[in-house]
Amino acid sequence: LNLSQQDNTPKKVRVGEDLGYDAKNSLVELYLDSSSQAAGKSIVELQLPKTSLIVLIDRGGKFVTPNGATVLQEKDKLMVMVDNDEELEKVSKVLHG
Question: Residue 2 has what pLDDT?
């Protein structure tokens, strides 16, 4: 059953959908594991796509509102706003290689 393995599938929420908006943006939860090349780097160093935005970081149960100088850490859970699946792929590649 593979119950011991963590599910790292990105979780997506369509922004505004519950309110009846036809929004194209999604809020995606991405996890930085020990193999992430983004750990130890500031957000500005990552050069994420210009239309994506890290809006919140869950760091061990405490929430961090990030800015460009925020340094990402292993085990951070990032809430990232993206426009589409292609952009999500680019963000994932930046974070995980």
Answer: 47
